[in-house]
Amino acid sequence: MNIKAFQSELKKRNVDFALFYNVDYDKTNANMFYFSGYKGIGALIITKNKRFLIIPKMEIGRVKGIKAYIWDKDHRLFEFVKKKVKGKVIGIDKNVFTLNAYKEFKKQFKNVKTVDISSICNKLRAIKTNEEIGIIKEACKITDNILKKCFSNFKKFRKETDVAAFLENETKKSGYELAFNPVVASGKNAAVPHHAPENIKLKKGFCVIDFGIKYKGYCSDATRTIYIGRPKEKEIRLYNFLLRMQKDAIKNAKIGKKCSDLYNKVNEDLKEYKKYFTHGLGHGIGIDVHELPNLTEKSKDILKRGMAFTIEPGIYFKNQLGIRIEDDILLTKKAEILTKTKKGLMVI
Ligand code: GLY
Ligand code: MN
């Protein structure tokens, strides 16, 4: 969390305070969590020199290291916020503020100017602090361990959903959360990058497994493609070709590099296969599984020290096969690979 940098951005833009809120028990407001470590419902206020939460009484046990006011339920949330902080220019996160909440907010805060602060938050979050780096590294280690266990048990699995259930169970019984629903895509399903595992027998051929966990609020995201049955020579060649693209892209991920250049280089090197590469080369990981930087053709992002992101080229032949290899990378002096599950084609 880089609160000082955020507050100096507020000063620069003459914003009196930033307001974050969450009213959904099933969700976490990522920016609120980033700046407060708090995951429950309520509001977070950040002024140029202060930071405090407004939360229901029942949530007090979740607050650590930040002042919190108890929100009495006689007041609507923003009505209570108004009692605690004043301002004429208010920063809000337009990616999270719903239209209904905004109407309610404007009822309480008349004649104020709102400024969107989402991109300030996103840019700060893209550069990880040492504490965040430690957490992401651990998330990747846990992911590797679960994947290893999954592959050593693979012969026991009959269906795509058996594999997904194993990954989910291993995650949850160890006390972690899934970062997203795992992809287990066998046979021609592997041609669908985000295939949802089906209650069907695992098919022969490439099987794409995309899995990530959340540890202390931070995500990992790794993909391995294994082969069920006996691969043909040309399938092995195709796999190794993509693996080389992935390794080269990691080598090319350097401080100061344009993300679009990194993407374009892979696209160029894929030659006649480039039309089968149907998604971005990667994305930042952190509190959200997809955050800045974007490693895509049109991205304006530049790689910077402290960024954590995926490199995940894929090739998909519709109704036939798919291969994707994805690692999580931390950019320090050079690109450090955080997910260490082996990448040579595993045949099962
Ligand atoms: N692992 C899911 C994704 O990156 O889209
Ligand atoms: Mn990914």
Note the total helix count.
9
Q: Taking strands numbered 1, 2, ... along the chain, how are they ordered across the largest sheet?
A: 4-3-2-1-5-6
The distinct ligands, each listed once, are: glycine, manganese (II) ion
Instruction: Briefly note the CATH topology name of the largest domain.
Output: Creatine Amidinohydrolase
Q: Which strand-content bin applies to the residues? A: 15-25%
The CA-CA distance between the termini, in Å, is 43 Å
CATH class category label of the largest domain: Alpha Beta
At the fourth level of CATH, the homologous superfamily of the largest domain is Creatinase/methionine aminopeptidase superfamily
Annotated CATH architecture of the largest domain: Alpha-Beta Complex
Classify the secondary structure makeup into a structural class: alpha+beta
What oligomeric state do these chains adopt?
single chain
Low-confidence regions = none
* Average residue-wise pLDDT: 97
Word description of this protein:
- The chain has helices at 3-12, 30-36, 77-84, 99-108, 118-126, 130-152, 160-173, 233-252, 259-269, and strands at 17-22, 42-47, 51-55, 67-70, 89-92, 113-116, 177-178, 183-186, 205-211, 213-215, 218-219, 222-228, 282-284, 291-295, 308-311, 314-317, 321-324, 327-331, 335-337, 346-347.
- The chain has 348 residues and is α+β, with helices and mostly antiparallel strands.
- It has 2 domains: 3-125, Creatinase/prolidase N-terminal domain (Creatine Amidinohydrolase, Chain A, domain 1, 3-Layer(aba) Sandwich), CATH 3.40.350.10; 127-337, Alpha-Beta Complex (Creatine Amidinohydrolase), CATH 3.90.230.10.
- The strands form 6 sheets. The protein has a 6-stranded mixed β-sheet, with helices on both faces. The protein has a 4-stranded mixed β-sheet with strand order 8-9-12-20, with helices on one face.
- The radius of gyration is 22 Å and the shape is elongated.
- The protein starts with a helix and ends with a strand.
- 39% of the residues are buried.
- The model has no long low-confidence stretch (mean pLDDT 97).
- Manganese (II) ion is lined by residues 221, 283, 310, 312, 326.
